[in-house]
Design brief:
Blueprint lengths: L16 E4 L3 E2 L12 H4 L11 E5 L1 H8 L13 E3 L12 E4 L3 E8 L5 H5 L3 H4 L1 E4 L4 E4 L3 E7 L1 E3 L5 E4 L12
Parallel strand pairs: 3-4
Antiparallel strand pairs: 1-2, 1-10, 3-9, 5-6, 5-11, 6-9, 7-8
Length: 174
């Protein structure tokens, strides 16, 4: 569980974080009803914040370690790290029940930025993959979500997935 009150690439880990419905992670710089992403705030300041919570699958860290990159929870700026949930395979609108109370709705894929290479040279290339089935690039650096129900989340809390009704839409960049 990670959050940071100021803009920085990585986020310090905490024993728990509190998710606030309609806002995001309490005490995190990206919390808010409208866009909080530094670059996008300059030209789309009134758009809804679809990036209130950033989740990454811990299996990505395992894959990166095999390629010589040491990455752990919070270092890529995510708030929540999961294991055993196919985050990238979820459809848009999936609900994730985190711990006893919190619920987030998946809004899309995190778009990797060049700051990833400032953190670890060459890491940006590992965040992008060609998907021959979709005939397009896909991003591997997690998903973004909005908070639908307030609650506290701790490491090792269970994550339950609720898929949206059919027809389902694949994740796109947000």
């Amino acid at each position: 569980m990670s959050r940071n009150a100021s803009y920085a690439f990585s986020k310090p880990n905490h024993a728990s974080i509190t998710l606030l419905a309609g806002l995001g992670v309490e005490g995190d710089v990206h919390a808010g009803e409208t866009i909080r992403h530094q670059f996008r705030m300059t030209y789309e300041p009134e758009l809804p914040n679809l990036r209130q919570v950033h989740l990454i699958h811990e299996e990505l860290f395992d894959d990166l370690a095999l390629k010589g990159f040491e990455v752990s929870a919070g270092l890529l700026g995510e708030n929540i790290t999961t294991r055993g949930v196919d985050l990238l395979g979820l459809p848009t609108g999936s609900l994730l029940r985190l711990g006893a109370d919190a619920v987030v709705e998946v809004t899309g894929l995190r778009t990797p930025c060049s700051k990833i290479n400032d953190f670890r040279a060459g890491l940006l290339d590992e965040m992008i993959a060609w998907d021959p089935l979709a005939d397009a690039y896909t991003f591997k650096c997690g998903v973004m979500a909005v908070v639908r129900r307030t609650g506290t989340v701790r490491p090792d809390d269970p994550v339950a997935v609720e898929l949206p009704a059919l027809p389902q839409r694949p994740l796109e960049r947000v």
